[in-house]
Automatic annotation (TrEMBL):
This protein's record includes keyword Calcium: no
Family annotation (SUPFAM superfamilies): lambda repressor-like DNA-binding domains
Entry keyword annotation includes DNA-binding: yes
Protein name as it appears in the record: Helix-turn-helix domain-containing protein
Keywords, comma-separated and alphabetical: DNA-binding
Family annotation (CDD domains): HTH_XRE
Source organism (scientific name): Sphingobacterium tabacisoli
Length: 219
């Protein structure tokens, strides 16, 4: 029995997408997504291929096994060649904050000045890649290992309702930290610990990011 309907629902939930938002990504209708998730219909093969490519998941796994949350967020070691910064190979160029960021003078204060890594991720939001290291503060409950590369999506109005308890990243000048979002009514905070947090401000949203996925870097 195909697992595609179950996996579409889990993908949508993990990524914080409504049925309509998921449908819009693949030129479908909300009714299409509802029928897949309720196992009343299955998508055409071209739709399956599009979903697999978009979320970087092998087609066989999307069809044949029930994906775990970790499998959805973890891009896997088979993309290690994507970490070569000096060649594109048709992959998406993503601004990258690695250990070298702290060892060199800053040429500016924006994504355009960052080096790029090339990775098979395609997303309508701006993406940022950050190497988890002891140089960047993070919460005591942070579940990611040293050297893991975390992919983050820019925080836009459309995803504010998905932020509560999600991990995120704040980056403004020299102030960088990982935290966890806490939503209280219309106030949103990215919390590092009991002593440090930043209140989300839509006018300065460029400094706020939400976890999109992770890549276990081979070292």
């Amino acid at each position: 029995m195909s697992q595609i309907g179950i996996n579409i629902k889990k993908l949508r939930k993990v990524k914080g997408l409504s049925q309509q938002a998921f449908a819009d990504l693949f030129n479908l209708t909300r009714g299409n997504i509802s029928s897949y998730e309720e196992l009343r219909a299955e998508p055409k093969i071209e739709v399956v291929l599009h979903i697999a490519k978009y979320f970087c998941i092998p087609v066989s796994e999307l069809l044949e096994k029930q994906l775990t949350v970790n499998e959805i967020l973890n891009f896997g070691d088979h993309f290690e060649e994507a970490l070569k910064i000096d060649q594109n190979g048709g992959l998406n160029a993503i601004p990258f904050i690695g250990r070298e960021y702290f060892q060199e003078p800053k040429a500016g204060d924006g994504l355009s000045t960052l080096p790029k890594i090339y990775f098979p991720i395609y997303h309508k939001q701006q993406l940022l890649a950050v190497e988890n290291s002891s140089l960047i503060p993070n919460p005591s409950s942070f579940p990611f290992e040293e050297h893991t590369i975390l992919f983050l999506e820019s925080v836009e109005v459309e995803i504010l309702h998905t932020l509560d308890q999600s991990y995120g990243f704040y980056c403004k000048g020299e102030d960088l930290f990982f935290g966890q979002y806490v939503v209280n009514g219309t106030e949103i905070e990215l919390v590092l610990n009991a002593w440090k947090s930043v209140v989300f401000d839509a006018e300065h949203k460029s400094g706020f990011w939400k976890l999109f996925g992770k890549f276990e870097r081979i070292i």
